[in-house]
Each structure stands twice: as C-alpha cells, then as structure tokens.
Amino acid sequence: MIEENAALTDSLAAGADDSAPSPASEPATAAQRETAQALRALKPKMELNGTVKRIELGGAFIDVGIGTDAFVHITQLGETTPRNVSDVLREGQAVTVWVHKVDPERGRLEVTMIKPLGLDWDEIRVGQVLTGKIVRIENYGVFVDVGAERPGMVHVKELAHGFMGSPVDVYQIGEELTAKVIKVSSRKKQLDLSVKALEPAPAAAADEDDDDENVPSAIELALRRALLNSADADFPELERALAGRGAHKANNRRGKRRGKPNTRTQQEEALTSSSEG
Prior knowledge:
By secondary structure, this protein is α+β, with helices and mostly antiparallel strands. The protein folds into 3 domains: 2-112, CATH 2.40.50.140; 121-198, CATH 2.40.50.140; 208-276, no CATH class. Helices cover 33% and strands 24% of the residues. The protein has 7 helices and 10 strands. The strands form 2 sheets. A 5-stranded mixed beta barrel has the order 1-2-3-5-4. Strands 6-7-8-10-9 form a 5-stranded mixed beta barrel. Helix 5 (236-247) runs antiparallel to helix 7. The protein is elongated and about 110 Å long. The protein starts with a helix and ends with a helix.
C-alpha cells in the first residue's frame, strides 16, 4: 500500500511538472532540496507533531511540516491493529508520531504512532552504563527500567562489594539507579546489570594480626636461645610447642576472625605447663 501511495504521489507530481511552465520548475526543485535536507536531519525515534491530512485504506498521510507528508501504516497506529484507519484517525486531527523510516533521496518518510523503546536490544552492549528507575524489589535483587523492552536486574551480589542484608531495606520503588551492563541476551530478552562494577574494588586491608604471627615474642626468643645454648639438654615438650606454632598459624588466623580461642595463648599455656613439669 505504501508503494502504491508513493507511486500515485510521484505520478501526480510528474503530471504537475509537465503542465507547469519552465520558470515555475525552479522553485519546485529548490523545495525538493529543502525537503531532502529536512529529511536528512530526521533520525529514527525522533518525535514529531503533525496533522492528519488524508486517510487511505492502508494508512494515513500526516503533515509534519517538512515539505512532504509522512505516511503511517495501519499496523503502526497502536499496539493493536485497528480494523479500519478511520476507527483511530480523522482528517484534521492533531497527532504525535515518531520517525520510523526515512529516505531523503526518494523524499519519503514513514512514521509510527507507537512510542518506540528508548533502547532496542541491538543497541545494548556489555560494559554500557545505563541509568533508570527501580520498578521492582525482591530479596534477590532489584529491577531497573532503563528504557528497554524489559527491566534489567541487579542481583543482590551486584549491588555493592560485600553487600549484606535485603535490598528492600536499602532501595525504594521509583529511585534512580545507575548500573553497568554485565550480560545481555536479546533472544531471552534478559538484561543483567551491576552497581558493584562501577565501584572501585576494596583495597586489601593489611592484617596486623597476621604480621604479628610472623614476629616471635620475647619469651619465644629467650626459650629458643636457651635450647640452642643447652645442646645437652632435652626438652621434647618445649620443642614440640615451639614447632607447633608454625603448623597452627593458619588456624590461629581463622580462630581470631571467628572469635575462637587464640592459638598463641594455648601455646603459651603449653610452654608454662612444660616448664612446671
């Protein structure tokens, strides 16, 4: 139908050019150049305001003020295709449309009355940073509307480094959130986002307790000195206690972090017991 309407328009234009005197053809050529220039400035998804000029069986022509009428196909009149164009539009009606396809060389413009998505799936790339509003919150993450067909999900593990608790306690519906695309599947229509990916990785904190483990205490140094200076002496229990210090070093670190008894204290008690024996 679009081709038929275009062919009719071209034939009428050709007939008008043949009947008009040659001096009048110059303004028409200049107008065509202006129209082509205006069409080149249009991009898909651009919003335009216009007036319904003529209704056809397969769609309608709309004057959007660029020198040539835009055509909207019946399938582009809404999410549900109407039975007749006249069920939705009437001549002289003011409408809002969006650029669907544009051909400056042929002087043609197709528009749609269906508001386009802010982001198509083929426009989304891994590593892209998007901003949107939270539309849903679950214990396992939050869903953010970034203008795509479906909201993107930020899993609870991707909300922050070391995030603890429930997102419900931290975020609110309607809150703006900026996140980085870490995975996208146009086939499954899934979009995974991460706030954590935009944050600097936490620096490895120096573990002072671990450093202390590598430095023997004054008591340990004195006992080792005594062992070295007393070659004939035999202190098997004391030697085992000192040797066991290195073997239990890793367990001692974990014990400190988890609130378990300090291994060093146990070793000192063993040293005291061996001395008393």
